[in-house]
User: Fold this.
Amino acid sequence: MYNEPMLKDNALAGKTILVTGGGTGLGKSMSKYFLELGANVIIASRKLDVLQATADELAQATGGNILAVACDVRNYQEVENVIAQGVAKFGKIDVLLNNAAGNFISPTERLSHKAFDTVIGIVLQGTYNFTLALGKYWIDQKLKGNILSIVTTYAWTGSAYVVPSACAKAGVLAMTRSLAVEWAKYGIRSNAIAPGPFPTKGAWDRLFPEDLRGKLDPANKVPLKRVGEHQELANLAGYLVSDFSSYDRKIGEKCE
Ligand code: HXC
Ligand code: NAP
Assistant:
């Protein structure tokens, strides 16, 4: 039950959703579900070949409309280009899913300052770049907007050996909560999901390398003693990007 698709058919029809890091892992799984529910999807990350292969696969599997645009989330001009291309193709963008990330396991004292910059750049700067650019667009165009960011459980607690990621995810969480208040008056929602461990190649290769997997079974840290399944996360993300979670105003009532 928990790993079956949850929302009803066409729950996202008419919406355009921009997913950073949508070519792989959890971003790909969430993008697939959004397409199945009738959304248009834009996926953006650095590797165009990976993005294009995912776009072709998901278009074929779901019959949905998907656009792949290469972008380094750290580069504001490239971020603006993704938004311009998305609006040119689909007419508007309704939802931002901040999902792109970089991470690795390392004793902090062994990191170079560039290693720290790299993870903070992808996770925190990348998230505020897309959030700022789309926020300006929504406010300027008087459109409602919806931001969903993927953080992680250690955004609250911190975590040893992934310190740049913990700092960056805590920053994303603070931005999420701040903008939920500040931009509510524009009809822009801001939420985050904090997953525990979900198997993906990106995370497993970097955080639970083969030689450590015997000692560091990620399921052991979860009270229910199992890792997550992608559809479980896609169900929650699908709900949060849909109008079922909109807490909308009454018909006829205007946003200031
Ligand atoms: C220490 C490292 C390192 C490592 C890279 N660096 N890997 N330092 N340990 N394992 C250092 C490099 O030496 C360099 O510093 C600097 O970081 C930048 O490295 P580049 O390889 O040039 O960076 P780049 O090509 O931009 O690649 C970014 C990356 C890479 C983060 C290093 O791993 C990547 O592309 N990751 C994207 C996908 C990803 O990480 N997915 C996992 C998300 S999992 P110097 O000083 O040498 O120049 C996740 C889960 C959270 O977030 C919760 C799980 C429960
Ligand atoms: P993943 O497959 O490695 O996804 C990361 C994505 O980020 C990749 O598609 C990558 O694409 C993109 N990316 C990295 N650097 C980028 C940059 N500079 N510009 C643009 N895109 C960039 O890992 P995942 O496990 O699915 O992670 C997805 C999200 O879930 C992340 O936010 C992660 O922190 C979060 N999360 C995962 C877990 C888990 O257990 N898997 C748990 C908690 C939270 P390119 O290489 O093409 O750029």
